[in-house]
Amino acid sequence: MTTTTLEKPAAPATTAPTRKSDRKIILVGFDLGTNKSCVLAGPAGSADLTVTKIVPTLVGYVKDGIVDGIIAGNATILFGEDAQKNFLHVNLVAPMGLGVIKNTDAARDFFRHVRGLVDPASTSEIRAVIGVPANAEEDAREEIRACASGVFDRVLLIPEPFLAALGYRDDSRLNQPNYVDPVINSLFIDIGAGTSDLCLIQGYFPSRDDQICIDFAGDAIDALIHEEIDRQYPGNGLSRHTVRDIKETHSYVGPVRKPTDVKVIIGGKARTLELGDILSRSCNALIDKIYPALTTLITRASSDSVVQLLQNIIVTGGGSQIRGIDVVLQKRLEDDGFEQPKVRLAGQDYKRYVAIGAHKAARAARENQWQHVLD
Amino acid sequence: MREITRVVRQICLLAEIDRESEASRVTSAILDPLVDRYREAHGPDSLPDERLREIRVHEQERARNAAALGEMLFPLLAEHLAALSRAAGRAEAAPAAPAPAAGTGRSRPPLSPGIADLLDGMLAQEGSRPPVRPRRSQVKVLPPPSLNPTNPSAHP
């Protein structure tokens, strides 16, 4: 990453600033998720949001030989739900894997799509705060910057759990004495599709030691469920997409819940599968992965703050929708002797918190904090 | 080809600001595959090594000039920025100091300055990671002189 300031030596000193100042600035909060991305955008100087969109992080390249009229507008690239709907006619590419860019070309196309959503006329200056997994390596961050260059004008990359805390923060309650600001003292567990990110947030920007990123999250649970279903019901032909739907509808942690009957279509016929054990084993694997990281971070908190911190453990991301995850984590903390822990779910808005936080950060960022990206 | 030129420029700039390891990473992770793809798509002779060298020489020159300009402009702009920041600080009339590094014991600062201060912490951490990037941070902070440096909300 570097800056456009270096790109402007040839421009007459008086024209570049004037031209810049003529452009409207749009601030974008961009949660670049492995499966779903959330985009919030609005003009600088206003809290108004002109774009609020959750888009599946998918790019569909239309296959050769598709006759005119099959794809709306004879587009050659489709995005998000449009790509999903036309899966028969496109090569579907997921730009992201495990929370980082795995296909640069697709990611760049996806970024361009996002730009088109927030600035259809392509006349504005776009400043985007983009969420990155906790502890994202410099290579991963560089990849995002590379894809953003020429698409966005300025960017800021900020760890997702921190953005989730910012998004979750109820600004209207900051002055209430009984309100514990999550940005001041909390522990966020953000369970996405690719990674589970845990982050201590204690009034300062979390250091690398305050964050733990685990390569086990929703997609890994899907894979486990799929493997076990294949083993138990060979030749079922269920797609990963269907397995994900099953997880999103029936997932739980804690003791086995039987029967958990799930109706599926196999070979065109309706069948009912009993998936209680499979769902239990697959979802509880998540607890086994994140619990040690949770306790590690708790023990890293200072003794002055840890009691209040234990009251403010928040689970967000798609994984927060797994039934009982708050109860099971809290129970394990209690059983291990932690002082009156309280684990809460972020709530139904979990898909948007990172983007909300990113947009808040975009509104608050000082001019000198934005990072220019090369065009 | 434009993309290749852009990436070469990025590499030259990274090298120019002493971020050699990053330049190497971008070369192997981005430029090399890009060149391979280009040659696959357009034929092996479409982009000879000689042409690639020419691009690199050209972009090196551009990067060098740009860095030199940045170094000349920086003191002027930093001064300008500091003056504007002081003025903005007065205008904001924040009653308390901005959020400290470990601010749990203090009264809560207003929302925006708090977040911006937290971002300062993030940028400081990034800046402190090896390799050290002193010149990068110099260049990064430069806003166009005509823009208000305190908040994008001041823009039309």
Distance between the termini of chain A: 11 Å
β-sheet strand percentage of chain A: 15-25%
CATH level-4 homologous superfamily of one domain in chain A = ATPase, nucleotide binding domain
Low-confidence stretches of chain A: 1-18
Strand order of the largest sheet of chain A: 3-2-1-9-10-18
| Main sheet characteristics of chain A | 6 strands, mixed
Shape verdict of chain B: elongated
Based on CA atoms alone, the radius of gyration of chain A comes out at 22 Å
Helix amount of chain B? 55-70%
Content-based structural category of chain B: mainly alpha
Q: Which word captures the global form of chain A?
A: flat
Write down the overall mean pLDDT of chain B: 64
Radius of gyration of chain B: 21 Å
Task: Give, in order, the helices and strands of chain A.
Answer: HEEEEEHEEEHEHEHEEEHHEEHHEHEHE
N to C succession of SSEs of chain B: HHHHH
Number of strands of chain B: 0
**Portion in strands of chain B:** under 5%
Continuous helix count of chain A: 11
Q: What is the oligomeric state here?
A: heterodimer
